[in-house]
Design a protein that fits this description.
With 696 residues, the chain is mainly beta. Helices cover 11% and strands 39% of the residues.
């Protein structure tokens, strides 16, 4: 093809005028924010965001969560936990907090509870479920009504079925009338299951053959009639009583020991004639009755008397003549008998001092004393009374053969009161207390002219009128150890002071008073000594409990001798009399520097209490053996006062307490005197004590 060449053509008009005009298009910038928004809320973006958030929460949960594990018994129990709990292995994954749980399993009681899970660590718990009760079905052979006991306690059963039996080893006993008990140990599984028990019952009776002469007698056991003889009866095992009776014959009771399954034939029972019945009355009634010398009771009375023989009856009553009677009754015969008794009288003359007192006989006013009374010859209560005097009472049986006399000496109220107070008694620790009723004025202390006198023996006028009890001996080791079991009085150079019958020593004044309070409480009395601030702070003079003797009481007891006052325990002159007390004698020469070489009391140190003669008032060892703690605080008078002291008890304040009496360590003239006074507070091996009591 030929190429044509284009030739420009020139024209008048410009070429631009004829060419098409290209207009510019307006420029709009891209909107970046709107695009980004559309991308952000697109489905894909939301899905991605949700996944990221879910993953973040899961990560936080996994970091914060703790495992919660329940070890259950049984192991296959179902575990339910409230709230967000993710199963994980053999447990659950939970956040820290409070959760409720329920654990259940078939055949078990469910268990619920509340548990706290902390952020400190994992939580593991053991839970044991209780088995549901089981049932027990007892089937007896033979099929008889039964009672069921489980572990000794009877339980309710319906046709042998026992509901709600706890799981475990049980001892089951099956009982039925006329059968021996059946016992077997079984294991109840529980879990609502039924355990079946076959109980083969063995008979609990034996066949007993009974015969009698004559025949046809009625046989009864425990009130149940079994039939007439001869017969064979089934008796339950055990000790049974078989009664065989026949009209007009004596009933015979036969004890039979029945063993289950062991048959017996009893010896033939011979029935003798029946007893007769005698109904007896007397005028007056209440008379005693003997039959053939055997006492049978008081009238009115029913007597069973053997038939076919003569019986001797005797009737007697106080104050009446006795009556004898004979009688013979046929078999089964009944009779009535009435006996009149004749009264017997005796004369009793009653006098009184003072005269003209009222006389009461058997509780009834009879007249004025000085009369003679005619009374039935039986025991009578006699009471004689007069105003201002204690009544006199006695009993007497008058005699028809001679007149008797009752002389009533009436005591004043004061005399009667003291008549009821015992002169002696034994206190709770075993010692003897003797009653003293002083009513005297005497002088305590000693004259300045008395040889051996000490300055603290100031003479004092004392009136002693308050009655009291005093221990006849010093308190012994045996008595004190009832209060303090471990106390030891120790020894002196190997010579024991600790034997039971020796006086207790090595005790302080406070120890002695606390013993008194202990003994008061033991005997139900009010303690005398007041305690506080770790010690004795005073005393109650109105209390009736035990205490130490006052110095005035001790001085009067030690020195009083038929209205005079002794100087020494044995009298008023030297030398020491034989057997008069335990002092520093020849036996104590190895223990003491100064002794009486010419006197022997047989003991080197203390002697058993009451080893020597008592003083005129019956009190032992007021001189010798051991010196004695006294109730009073220690003081020394001026000797200038002429005032009489009434029942003195010493001051309330002071540092020391009085000690009276010589001891086994003393041999000097000063100490052997009964006026000798000492003082102290601390224990010594020659100081003991005796106890006293006021009579209120």
């Amino acid at each position: 093809m030929a190429v044509k060449e284009a030739v420009p053509v020139r024209d008048e008009k410009s070429a631009l005028d004829d060419s098409p005009f290209i207009e510019p298009i307006g420029f709009t910038p891209v909107q970046l924010n709107a695009t980004r928004t559309r991308l952000l809320f697109s489905k894909r973006a939301l899905v991605v965001s949700f996944c990221l958030v879910l993953g973040l929460l899961a990560l936080i949960y996994l970091v914060s969560a703790r495992s919660l594990i329940f070890d259950t018994k049984p192991a296959n129990a179902n575990v339910s936990i409230s709230g967000l709990a993710l199963p994980l292995g053999d447990g659950h994954l939970v956040l820290p907090g409070s959760y409720r749980f329920t654990i259940s399993a078939e055949g078990y009681l469910p268990k619920s509870g509340k548990i706290e899970v902390t952020g400190d660590g994992h939580s593991r718990h053991t839970v044991t479920l209780e088995k549901l009760p089981g049932r027990l079905q007892v089937e007896s052979d033979p099929a008889v009504p039964i009672r069921v006991l489980i572990n000794g306690h009877e339980v309710r059963n319906e046709n042998g079925l026992v509901e709600k039996v706890a799981a475990g080893i049980m001892q089951v006993t099956v009982l039925s009338d006329r059968y021996l008990p059946f016992t077997q140990e079984i294991e109840i599984e529980g879990l609502g299951n039924t355990h079946r028990l076959q109980a083969k019952l063995r008979p609990a009776w034996a066949n007993i053959h009974i015969s009698s002469n004559p025949i046809g007698a009625t046989v009864t056991v425990n009130g149940t009639v079994l039939g007439t003889t001869p017969l064979t009866a089934e008796l339950i095992q055990g000790n049974q009583t078989v009664s065989v009776s026949l009209p007009d014959h004596k009933t015979v009771d036969i004890p039979v020991a029945v063993t289950a399954g062991v048959d017996q034939t009893l010896a033939r029972v011979h029935l003798g004639p029946a007893d007769g019945l005698l109904r007896v009355v007397t005028v007056p009634e209440g008379a005693g009755v003997t039959v053939n010398g055997e006492f049978r009771g008081h009238t009115p009375l029913k007597l069973e008397l053997s038939s076919g023989e003569i019986h001797r009856l005797r009737f007697f009553k106080d104050g009446y003549t006795s009556v004898e009677h004979t009688i013979d009754l046929g078999a089964g015969m009944e009779r009535d008998l009435s006996i009149n008794l004749s009264a017997i009288y005796g004369r009793v003359h009653i006098t009184s001092v003072p005269a003209d007192a009222e006389v009461y006989i058997d509780g009834q006013y009879a007249g004025i004393s000085g009369q003679t009374f005619n009374l039935p010859a039986k025991s009578h209560s006699i009471v004689v009374r007069k105003e201002g005097y204690a009544e006199f009472d006695t009993s007497i049986v008058p005699s028809a053969k001679l007149q008797q006399t009752v002389r009533a000496v009436l005591l004043s109220s004061e005399q009667a009161r003291w008549d009821k107070v015992p002169s002696e008694f034994r206190h709770g620790a075993g010692g003897t207390m003797k009653l003293m009723r002083p009513n005297t004025v005497f002088t305590m202390g000693s004259s300045r002219r008395e040889q051996g006198r000490r300055a603290n023996e100031v003479m004092r006028q004392v009136s002693l009128t308050r009655p009291f009890y005093i221990g006849t001996t010093e308190v012994t080791n045996r008595e004190y150890r009832q209060y303090k079991r471990m106390h030891s009085s120790s020894h002196v150079n190997g010579v024991s002071l600790d034997n039971d019958n020796l006086p207790v020593v090595n005790i302080s004044w406070a120890d002695a008073t606390l013993f008194c309070n202990w003994l008061s409480q033991r005997d139900g009395l009010t303690p005398v000594y007041l305690t506080g601030q770790g010690g004795i702070i005073g005393f109650d003079s109105a209390a009736n409990g035990y205490r130490l003797p006052t110095e005035a009481e001790w001085a009067w007891l030690a020195r009083y001798d038929r209205g005079a006052m002794r100087k020494y325990p044995w009298g008023n002159t030297l030398p020491v009399s034989d057997n008069s007390g335990n002092y520093a004698d020849s036996h104590a020469a190895k223990l003491l520097p100064t002794v009486m070489r010419t006197y022997s009391d047989r003991y080197a140190a203390t002697a058993p209490v009451a080893s020597y003669n008592a003083n005129p008032l019956g009190i032992h060892d007021l001189g010798g053996n051991v010196s004695e703690w006294i109730h009073d605080l220690y003081t020394i008078g001026t000797g200038l006062s002429t005032r009489r002291e009434e029942n003195p008890m010493g001051p309330q304040d002071g540092d020391y307490h009085v000690i009276r009496g010589s001891s086994w360590r003393h041999s000097g003239l000063t100490e052997l005197r009964l006026s000798y006074r000492d003082y102290g507070e601390a224990p010594r091996n020659d100081i003991g004590f005796r106890i006293a009591r006021w009579i209120n």
